């Protein structure tokens, strides 16, 4: 169990999957004016697809077109 | 230069101070973004968005689509994004933006602020002074261990002997016992696993319920896939809690206590994070997390 002494999390100690839990299922979703919505990405790589669906299994809504 | 592509990291309140004095921006001194670019603020309507100019060869739609297929590239982007957001949010309130949000020029960023203005402002009000803590719990016992109190017939090892390469759950010589014995043993193993699973689930529920009482909101993320986390232990709880900044030490302490009280679980705490998991009001499990600091006040 680690608690950063102050401020942001200690870099590189954080598991990528923890970061992606937050960055792919959290954060405000902006509509319009974008080059690409991450929901539009038709992922080909299997590991990445597994990752996205794993991170995202119970929260499908942010990935839908608004 | 106001055209070109802009990668958006987070929305903050525009305090009205000169640009250099925006708290979030000051914290970002020396921290670069996803394309190693410096991060600046575009202000509009009482809000500001932290953003960076990113090259079209990586971040225009076509290339970005391709790059996102590359795990190493995705990781680099995700970590840089997280670094900017968490550094900016270390001392002040930031509203993280979803990964890979790219707008057209400063004008596009201003349109984004204008479009989301009310949503952003109310979220910033709600999240002011709060941080996110992540708590994960893993089942400490293997899912299919040897059956308790039933040493394998004829084997020299007793129940608590540290079996090295010898795995009784998968006998490599099934001929050594009858089919009926084998099935009986499998059944006992399954029942033992179910009992352990019961302890594990109960422990996870205790952890979550207790922490909900200390948090303003909670959110359950899907359990992590061992192939992605690299942790083979079964992940039974993957939760995020929104906690007042000043309550963080108490929260962390309580997590430590819970870890001690639930031997069936290994409990991990991460944070403080910017409130990524709580940017949208309706995404949080409000029904579970509404116990408003019960038991936390002293």
For this entry, give a set of tags.
heterodimer; A: 66 residues; mainly alpha; 0% strand; disordered C terminus; B: 298 residues; alpha+beta; 2 domains; five-stranded antiparallel β-sheet; four-stranded antiparallel β-sheet; 8 helices; 9 strands; elongated; Gas vesicle protein (chain A); gas vesicle (chain A); GvpA (chain A)
Topology:
The complex is a heterodimer of chains A (66) and B (298).
Chain A: H1 16-25, H2 46-56
Helix pairs in contact in A: 1-2
Chain B: E1 5-13, H1 23-27, E2 40-44, E3 47-54, H2 56-59, H3 61-67, H4 71-88, E4 95-96, E5 102-104, H5 105-127, E6 130-139, H6 179-214, E7 217-220, H7 226-229, E8 235-244, H8 248-261, E9 265-273
Antiparallel strand pairs in B: 1-3, 1-4, 1-5, 2-3, 6-8, 6-9, 7-8
Concise description?
The complex is a heterodimer of chains A (66) and B (298). By secondary structure, chain A is an all-alpha fold.
Please bin the fraction of helical residues of chain A: 25-40%
Number of domains of chain B: 2
Radius of gyration of chain A: 14 Å
Shape of chain B: elongated
Shape of chain A: elongated
Q: What is the number of strand segments of chain B?
A: 9
What does this structure look like?
The complex is a heterodimer of chains A (about 70) and B (about 300). The N and C termini of chain A lie far apart (about 40 Å). Chain A has a domain at about 15-60. Chain A is about 30% helix and about 0% strand. The model of chain A is unreliable at about 1-10, about 40-45 and about 55-65 (pLDDT under 50). Chain A has helices spanning about 15-25, 45-55. Chain A contains two helices and no strands. Chain A is an all-alpha fold and about 70 residues long. In chain B, strands 1, 2, 3, 4 and 5 form a five-stranded antiparallel β-sheet that branches. In chain B, strands 7-8-6-9 form a four-stranded antiparallel β-sheet, covered by helices on one side. Chain B has eight helices and nine strands. Helix content of chain B is about 35%, strand content about 20%. Residues about 145-170 and about 285-298 of chain B have low confidence and may be disordered. In chain B, α6 (about 180-215) packs antiparallel against α8 (about 250-260). Chain B has two domains: about 5-130; about 130-298, no CATH class. In chain B, β2 and β3 (about 45-55) form a beta hairpin. With about 300 residues, chain B is of the alpha+beta class. Chains A and B meet through α1 and α2 of A and β1, α3, α4, β4 and β5 of B.
